[in-house]
Write a structure and sequence with these properties.
By secondary structure, this protein is of the alpha+beta class. The protein has one domain: Alpha-Beta Plaits, CATH 3.30.70.20. The protein contains 2 helices and 4 strands. The strands form 2 sheets. The chain has a two-stranded antiparallel ribbon. A two-stranded antiparallel sheet has the order 2-3. A hairpin with a 5-residue loop joins strand 2 (about 25-30) and strand 3. It is globular, with a radius of gyration of 11 Å. Bound molecules: iron/sulfur cluster (2 copies). One iron/sulfur cluster binds near residues 11 and 58.
């Protein structure tokens, strides 16, 4: 089950990762982050993440700290 980890303290709610994920597995959460906006949240109920790392590469704040392929 591949997965990513988003650091809530680093996310600035730009949503570039939301747009880039080919599987649409990253969404706005209900948690307010450092910019006063909702931070991004990984949501993969059906184990669709392919560990492509596009989300981590696009994040300008290096908030996606892990991409684990399994
Ligand atoms: S690693 Fe790829 S598939 Fe998985 S959440 Fe990031 S962009 Fe989406
Ligand atoms: S790209 Fe990075 S900073 Fe932007 S919403 Fe995603 S995790 Fe947060």
């Amino acid at each position: 089950m591949s997965h990513i980890k988003i650091d809530n303290n680093k996310c600035k709610s730009c949503y570039l990762c939301v747009d880039v994920c080919p599987k649409k597995l990253i969404k706005k959460s209900e948690t307010i982050g450092k910019t006063g906006e909702y931070i991004a949240q990984f949501c993969d109920k059906n184990n669709e993440c392919i560990a492509c790392a596009q989300c981590a590469m696009v994040c300008p704040d290096i908030a996606i700290t892990e991409v684990i392929k399994s």
